[in-house]
Amino acid sequence: MIDYIKGTITELNPATVVVETSGLGYSLNISVNTFSRIDGMKEVKILVHEVIREDAHQLFGFADKEERDIFRHLISVNGIGAGTARMMLSSLNPAEVENAIADANVNLLKSVKGIGLKTAQRIIVDLKDKIGKQAAAGEIFAATDNTKRDEALSAMVMLGFTRSAVVKVLDKLALEDKNLTVEDLIKRALKNL
């Protein structure tokens, strides 16, 4: 499975990007959100999600892990394919999708082309527990560097702590001091667990 592709952008438009690496050009379907993040760049690292079907092998590219995670959650919902998920992430940014699901905002989800009332309701029902918790934690860390949070969270989970317990402690620490380094976050979290 391909996790990411790092290379030179040879073609870019709001729907696709071609990234050349080691003499091969990979065509990736992207959202408008990813397009706006990589527009103007020459060298890029694109996170990848592969969709392999009998009749096609498609690559979907993402500028960051959060967008790819939301995409993967969306395609897990019955009736949402990769194209529809990409359309949603082109119409709304990942934070807006998370918040719409967490707040059960059916009208915002329905505003996306191809999403009707029943599909919007199904997205909310299927993903509210998965994404709702992430959205709440993400809001607290919105002003901080997400990389720091992700690294601290990953390290704590690898040490054997439960994700939900670690998220609560990291949320509390972020409210107290938003300028903590990854090491400080981990040390303080260890004292609080």
Could you please describe the fold and organization of this structure?
- The structure is a single chain.
- The chain is an alpha+beta fold and 193 residues long.
- It folds into three domains: 4-62, OB fold (Dihydrolipoamide Acetyltransferase, E2P) (Beta Barrel), CATH 2.40.50.140; 65-132, 5' to 3' exonuclease, C-terminal subdomain (DNA polymerase, domain 1, Orthogonal Bundle), CATH 1.10.150.20; 146-192, Ubiquitin-associated (UBA) domain (Helicase, Ruva Protein, domain 3, Orthogonal Bundle).
- 54% of the residues lie in helices and 19% in strands.
- The protein contains nine helices and five strands; from the N terminus they run βββαββαααααααα.
- The chain has helices spanning 32-38, 65-75, 82-91, 94-102, 106-110, 117-140, 146-158, 163-176, 182-192, and strands at residues 4-12, 16-21, 24-29, 43-52, 57-62.
- It has a five-stranded antiparallel sheet with strand order 3-2-1-4-5, sandwiched between helices.
- Strand 2 (16-21) and strand 3 (24-29) form a beta hairpin.
- Helix 2 (65-75) packs across helix 3 (82-91), helix 7 (146-158) runs antiparallel to helix 8 and helix 7 (146-158) packs across helix 9.
- The longest helix is centred in the middle third of the chain and has 24 residues, at 117-140.
- The chain starts with a strand and ends with a helix.
- Mean pLDDT is 86; it is low at 135-144.
